[in-house]
Amino acid sequence: MATVRRDERDPVGEQADTRPRPSDDTAMTSVADYYAGKNVLITGATGFMGKVLVEKLLRCCPQVRALFLLVRPKAGQSMQQRVDDMIKCKLFDRVREDDAHFHRKIVPISSELTEPGLAISPEDADKLAACVNIVFHCAATIRFDEPLKHAVQLNVIGTQQLLGLARRMRHLEAFIHISTAYANCNRKHIDEVIYPPPVEPRKLIESLEWMDDRIVQDITPRLIGNRPNTYTYTKALAEYVVQQEQDKLNIGIIRPSIVGASWQEPFPGWIDNFNGPSGVFIAAGKGILRTMRANNDAVADLIPVDVVINLTLAAGWYTAVHKPKTALVYNCTTGGINPFHWGEIEHHVMSSFKRNPLEQAFRRPNANITSNYLIYQYWILVSHKFPALLYDLVLRLTGQKPQMMRIFNRLHKAISLLEYFSSQDWEWNSENVNMLMAQLSPEDRKTFNFDVRQLNWPEYIENYCIGTKKYVLNEDMSDIPAARQHLRKLRNIRYTFNTVLVVFIWRVFIARSQMARNIWYFVVSLCFKFLSYFRASSTLTN
Ligand SMILES: CCCCCCCCCCCCCCCCCCCC(=O)SCCNC(=O)CCNC(=O)[C@H](O)C(C)(C)COP(=O)(O)OP(=O)(O)OC[C@H]1O[C@@H](n2cnc3c(N)ncnc32)[C@H](O)[C@@H]1OP(=O)(O)O
Ligand SMILES: NC(=O)C1=CN([C@@H]2O[C@H](COP(=O)(O)OP(=O)(O)OC[C@H]3O[C@@H](n4cnc5c(N)ncnc54)[C@H](OP(=O)(O)O)[C@@H]3O)[C@@H](O)[C@H]2O)C=CC1
After folding, report:
1. Gene Ontology terms, cellular component aspect (predicted)?
2. Does 334 fall in a domain?
3. Closest residue by CA, ligand 1 atom 6
4. From CA 361, how far away is CA 510, in angstroms rounded?
5. How many domains is the chain partitioned into structurally?
């Protein structure tokens, strides 16, 4: 049975709720005012969404006291080095302009979420317990091919442990958990409620403890059932785990759909990874990806990252100030409000990359999506595998290592994992998102804008594609003329190749068949007749 959201303004059950209620004064605070003087704890701050959250908090809530970031050392870098690198990146330019010393507010805390006690030192844990006012939990593994054990360890057990720490926080006002709109993608209509979990998390965790990896791998398809991957499955379990704490903590759950580049802030088109559609756009822009299985008419539920973060901060404010009695879920999606379809995305992505080409494209960008399996397999063969074979042959002949087939194999794996999401659509209810928008002051509605009715899709997609070029591939916009020249060269190579191929095939036929020769003479004489007719008529008109 689904948990039904109780209206927090409904007095029913107020007696049982022992947490302090907001006074009229606090209820009226603006979002930025609320964060003034607050200590905020963020997990996943080095990730795509975490970075945007840190940036927005520092820029638009400049009175925030401190941001405690749970970060792990990685790839030979200490957590401090990682945070230093992170805040040097272009995303933080605007914050740097406003306050050159903004880094003083950032307090990295060494933590590995899959370790017991989150591997936080006892001193750090005590410090956090004493001062944190609000938690944003963004960390997760978002890989679609993550082995179940690891996905559970991080997305479910990591979340449980963080909730354990949150319960120790004496001044905690809100716990905001970032989930995904696809946690319940086994349903077609998704309300802003926490659905019953596919399995009792405790039982699953206990079983996984004694099973070896091979057994877990074998039973994973049975366990995840009609969900496409371990990611959506464990995110559904995590929601349930979070909900279990709703009597003790003020909880908000944000469910974004497919998070894409920024729409407006800190500047349009910011993106820093290959996840979800970004990798597909880049592969298509480089002329590598020529086809993908997707439904032209299905809604492409992309949501800009700045919209998600604005909603997250607003939800943090609302949860802390209004203290809803149950965990409120916010479906952060675009499809029901301002729908755009995969077919339209394809058109705008392709035309954008023709206007602003990527450097050193493999072929001219020209991709199309299809939902037909046979047509898809045909294009895979003709447009992916055949050119890859040819290219690798040339590499071999010139003494280089073949690589194109390997790239295509990885690409095919990636797109096969994405096609579940691009081949169908879902309907999300967004009542709580609308309620939250109505609660904001007109000023906050501008500063923390999550009204996607104003989103102009063609403009957004153009900025998104340019963003992949500038921020993911680090290509310079001043090289666009050279990139265009390269595309022209590729077009000429293709024309020449096609002509040679046609002539070659035809010569083979002519050499072997009288009928082919007759057709050839007929076509040639017809062409001559047309030519002489046009020449004669143009001499007459002159
Ligand atoms: C025909 C073109 C027309 C264009 C218009 C049509 C577009 C249709 C797009 C459809 C997109 C649908 C997207 C749906 C997403 C649903 C999201 C659900 C929302 C969420 O809650 S979570 C966030 C989503 N999570 C992800 O996206 C993670 C997915 N990635 C993975 O699971 C792994 O990366 C993957 C794909 C299994 C590969 O793993 P692995 O082989 O171990 O290697 P790497 O991760 O190191 O990556 C290898 C190589 O592939 C590149 N890569 C990664 N992701 C993509 C991608 N989405 N598309 C293309 N390429 C990708 C990666 O950069 C690496 O490249 P290198 O050059 O560095 O080797
Ligand atoms: N991107 C999307 O399209 C969507 C994302 N979401 C949700 O949003 C949240 C953020 O996603 P996104 O920013 O895209 O993901 P990223 O993969 O970019 O970031 C994940 C973050 O989690 C941290 N992390 C991962 N494993 C651990 C660990 N063992 N210990 C400590 N930290 C860890 C990473 O740290 P490190 O840098 O050390 O690896 C990183 O900071 C996730 O909860 C995801 O489910 C929801 C819908 C869509």
Report:
1. peroxisomal membrane
2. yes
3. 346
4. 37
5. 2
